[in-house]
From TrEMBL:
This is TRF2/HOY1 PH-like domain-containing protein. Belongs to the inner dynein arm light chain family. Residues 12-24 have a biased composition (Basic and acidic residues). Residues 1-24 are annotated as: Disordered. It comes from the Eukaryota. Keywords: Coiled coil, Dynein, Motor protein. Residues 35-150 form the TRF2/HOY1 PH-like domain. GO terms for molecular function: dynein heavy chain binding.
Length: 341
């Protein structure tokens, strides 16, 4: 298995990075839970934590999203999915050790971000921009994510996870649910927290739409290349990829703007209707062409037979004309001889 080991720089730099990262965690601990991960496995890609808070699993209860965070050289790279995209979660102990394993099944690939310094006077202010898949493409293709934690690190948040609507199933005698959902309810019901959350949600994750478009175009081209789709002509693979991308766009927009989502659905339905009409015309045209081709082939066979018969008739008539011509010449010669006599 390919293991990706992300180093964290020198010892002094690492300590300062961990301190800054911990400060950010303390600011968010009222409406979020951050659990250190000892090992993260996604398909053939894996990463082992080299120190505390190197790799984190974060639950943002009010925003309803799960985030994998990796601290690398002072820069946080993260993947995030919505609670609604988690189709299954199994928490179980690891045999032979006190560690716990959490296996998550995702309905769609996560979103990828990297940390960037914001252009403000506050040196601790950070922002996140879209980035490409930093797991060698495994997170974009593999639905199952396996996370290892130390003893009781994840099980104490199991109650809050279930209260938040995650489909969690505890197996193998894991630790009892020790975390109440009161903190979650407080985070969701707090008016100040709700206003702050709404402001954060309305803020775009990046100030460069052009960069977003470039990244999405790269992902689309990679998907087209991996599926061996054709860029021109009729291609069911390309049609399926574009349909999935359009559906993702409709879902993402419909969450914040239901009216725009409804309008996009109408556009999608009308476009699908137009495509179906063109496909019907194409199929009927192909069928009509096949029928005409069959008729032309049958007519060509009949014409060839008629041509052969006519050629035989011409040969017969030519022979008859030659015979009659010879007879006429013979009679003319005989009449000349008789006239001379």
């Amino acid at each position: 298995m390919y293991a990706a080991v992300l180093n964290g720089g020198g010892p002094h730099t690492r300590e300062s990075q961990r301190g800054n990262f911990r400060e950010g965690l303390n600011r968010d601990n009222e409406d979020a839970a951050h659990i250190p991960i000892t090992k993260l496995v996604i398909g053939s890609w894996s990463i082992v934590a080299k120190y505390d808070e190197h790799v984190l699993l974060s639950f943002y209860w009010a925003e309803r999203k799960v985030v994998w965070e990796v601290l690398h050289l002072g820069v946080v790279r993260k993947m995030e999915v919505d609670f609604d995209d988690v189709t299954g979660a199994v928490l179980s102990p690891v045999s032979g050790s006190d560690a716990e394993r959490l296996v998550l099944e995702l309905a769609r690939p996560p979103r990828f971000y990297r940390e960037t310094q914001a252009s403000t006077d506050d040196s601790t202010a950070v922002n996140y921009v879209y980035t490409t898949d930093f797991t060698n493409g495994q997170a974009s293709q593999v639905q199952r994510h396996s996370l290892l934690f130390s003893s009781c690190a994840a099980s104490k948040h199991a109650g809050t996870m279930k209260a938040a609507g995650l489909p969690l199933r505890v197996e193998g005698g894991a630790m009892a649910l020790g975390d109440s959902s009161g903190r979650l309810d407080g985070a969701l019901r707090s008016p100040v927290g709700a206003l702050a959350l709404a402001a954060r949600l309305r803020k775009p994750p990046t100030s460069s739409p052009r960069l977003d478009a470039i990244i999405l175009q790269e992902q689309l081209e990679r998907e087209m290349r991996e599926c061996q789709a054709r860029y021109t002509g009729i291609c069911p693979v390309r049609d399926r990829i574009y349909t999935a991308a359009f559906d993702e766009l409709i879902v993402a927009i419909g969450k914040d703007e239901p009216k725009r989502g409804m309008m996009l659905r109408r556009v999608r339905d009308e476009a699908k209707l137009s495509c179906d009409n063109y496909r019907t015309v194409f199929e009927k045209s192909v069928n009509f062409g096949c029928i005409k081709l069959s008729q032309a082939v049958a007519l060509m066979g009949d014409l060839e037979a008629q041509t052969s018969n006519l050629e035989d008739e011409i040969k017969r008539l030519s022979c008859e004309a030659k015979r009659l011509t010879d007879l006429c010449e013979s009679l003319a010669h005989r009449e000349e001889q008789r006239a001379k006599a």
